[in-house]
Task: structure prediction
Amino acid sequence: MRPYLIAGNWKMNQTPEEAVQLAGELVRQLQGVKHKLLIAPSFVCLPGVAEVLKGSSLLLGAQNMAAEEEGAFTGETSVNMLLALGVKAVILGHSERRHIFGETDELINAKVRLALAKGLEPILCVGETLEERQAGRAGEVVKTQTRKGLAGVSPADVGRVTLAYEPVWAIGTGKTATPQDAEEIHGLIRDCFAGLYSPREAENLVIQYGGSVKGENAAQLMAQPNIDGALVGGASLKAAAFVPIARFDEGRT
Ligand code: PGA
Result:
């Protein structure tokens, strides 16, 4: 059985003080949850949140990192800095990085490989735009992003990679892919992964869904055989919204 991974991507929200408060509420309210749980605050909030998470089962994540290990890269944050703060996983290739900041598959791939080399678990995000979906190209786009994002990643390392399918048109828009639409793409990603690695590796691959996940739709999405968790943006910013997602299988939503 694959473990569910429920992650909160706080994006560019929360001051350090607010982040510490939210993290504290989550630690208290998520006690006893069996799934793997992760929160990814902004870089400046990481030190404070790391303190709050100590001794809890919540893992600390980052939203991005540099493709280089160190040096003259003004404004960037390195993998070693993240590791030193206790970060365990890093979201890479989020659609906002791809579409607002122009990150290419090649750059994202360099980050994935560096994260793995240094011991951080990458969450590789893939997803099509509305235009691509309407042109019938959703499957092809996510398969290409998966293949290019994982280029050069060895079978020995790939077990530490998580995939996140986030259709761009569903992010922050309130529009969720139907569980069936999401399931179809998740199946394609798993098949693609089996071709790149092996059916066994593909069976173990955790594939999260992201895009307007909330308490009301989490259980239905995660009931799909190939949906193994959620990457949550907007609904991760309030404990009252995130907790029901993390407890999606406890019949409270
Ligand atoms: P959303 O964002 O839940 O606000 O749609 C998801 C994401 O971007 O990871």
Summary: The chain has one domain: 5-246. Residues 9, 166, 171-172, 210-213, 231-235 surround 2-phosphoglycolic acid (CB under 6 Å).
